[in-house]
Amino acid sequence: MKPVLALVGRPNVGKSTLFNRLTKSRDAIVADFAGLTRDRHYGQGHLGAREYIVIDTGGFEPTAESGIYKEMAKQTRQAVAEADAVVFIVDARAGLSAQDHDIANYLRRLGKPCLLVANKAEGMTEGAQLAEFYELGLGAVVPVSAAHGQGVRGMLELALDALPLPAAEDEEAAEDDGSIRLAVAGRPNVGKSTLINTWLGEERLVAFDLPGTTRDAIRVPFERGGQKYSLIDTAGLRRKGKVFEAIEKFSVVKTLQAIESAHVVLLLLDATQGVTDQDAHIAGFILEAGRAVVLAVNKWDAVDAYRREWVQRDIEARLGFLKFANIHYISAQKRQGLGPVWKSITQAHQAAMRKLPTPQLTRVLQEAVQFQTPKRSGMYRPKLRYAHQGGMNPPIIVVHGNSLEGVTEVYKRYLEGRFRKAFDLVGTPLRIEMKTAHNPYADKDA
Q: Of 45, 79, 131, 344, which alpha carbon lies 20 to 30 A from 18's?
């Protein structure tokens, strides 16, 4: 599992600027709960080969008792609970404040790894200007400038070095025994735990009629038709005696980690709610992670014909980027429509792990070019010569040729359609990379 860093601090200390720096301005995953004014933002980054998840939070006021600041504090506490380490950001220019002391007291009580970072420290030395922050009792102060990138890499190395390296034994064991890791993902209260309980034929996971009943992702071994599975419920098991409100239980981090560790993701939607922003964010992350996916619309028995047609149009409009995935309309509670879901899961996994021989790939490529040639780009027309497989889960097809930088996205989608049809790649993303041959005369003088 990737380590998780939470950025915490009072308002206007540069948390979002540092977040953008750490994630290289990639789009954030947003936990959008109704009624919350300031949400947590989730993004991914990497330092060399080490990858991590970073959470951006709003201004933190631990003692806030009402209004927007109470909601923002609730968001921040959830981010800290999900994180493996906390990056506490203070303002080197504005100096120490009473609010900084409140936050430091809160973090010390948690006992979680914490790195104290003084932002906006461009041009400052580690002398008298930063000495006052040692009052917080959180150890050494790390000066950075998020806006200019100064000291950010060193700060990140310190934060990651304080954490143990992620263990991969469980994943390797799952791969060795031939099991398929299946993650059931979706927003709170769509019926994830109910579906898995129905599959298992027992109350293995606790299911309440409340959103966000469970929090940690858990794995349940399961076998069907001779095939072993490792079911990953992104909500997870939780004792009945500890039921809190949804914002304190639904873990976006666990969902993201479960998606990345899975072979296939079953994205569960709620027919009574349609496709929400949260559904679209999760679907976008599945696509970005390159995971095979099957869509299932739960509670199909609870809606009438008009609502069903509306839901189908909503899926086409908002989840059109997953049009390669099979869609099933089910009722987990009444055990309706579950059989075909397993067929799609198997089909998606086979497609994601399929070996694509170079001769067949090249033949399909040449047939596609013969049917429709790419548009001319500048003085030259791209020449696509041959293709080979560059990876699996998701399948990656590398196309070689000349002047391939001129191949348009429209033509790449055309090629994707031809490859999908030829190799029956249903339920998995497909990535096409263009590799232009080096011109040996490019560096020579005329």
A: 131
Domain residue limits, the chain = 4-161, 169-351, 358-436
119 labelled as ligand-binding? Answer: yes
Architecture of the structural domain at 358-436: 2-Layer Sandwich (3.30)
Which one is the CATH code of 169-351: 3.20.20.80, 3.40.50.300, 3.40.50.410, 3.40.50.700? Answer: 3.40.50.300
Residue 235 known to bind ligand: yes
**Is 14 marked within a binding site?**
yes
Read off the pLDDT of residues 290-335 as tens digits, 9 standing for 90 and up: 999 999 999 999 999 999 999 999 999 999 999 999 999 999 889 8
- The reply to whether 74 sits in an annotated binding site is no
Residue whose structure tokens are 């559904």: 279
320 is in an annotated binding site: no
| 67 labelled ligand-binding | no
Contact 284, 321 (CB under 8 A): yes
- Residue 439 marked ligand-binding: no
12 is in an annotated binding site: yes
The verdict on whether residue 408 carries a ligand-binding annotation is no
Q: Has 346 been labeled as part of a binding site?
A: no
Task: List Cβ neighbours of 359 (8 Å cut-off, separation of 6 or more).
Answer: none
Q: DSSP readout, 145-184?
A: BTTTTBTHHHHHHHHHHTSPPPP-HHHHHHHHTT-EEEEE
Separation in Å, CA 363 to CA 178, 366, 419: 32, 5, 10
- Look up the pTM and report it: 0.72
Q: Is 301 annotated as a binding residue?
A: yes
The reply, when asked if residue 310 is annotated as ligand binding, is: no
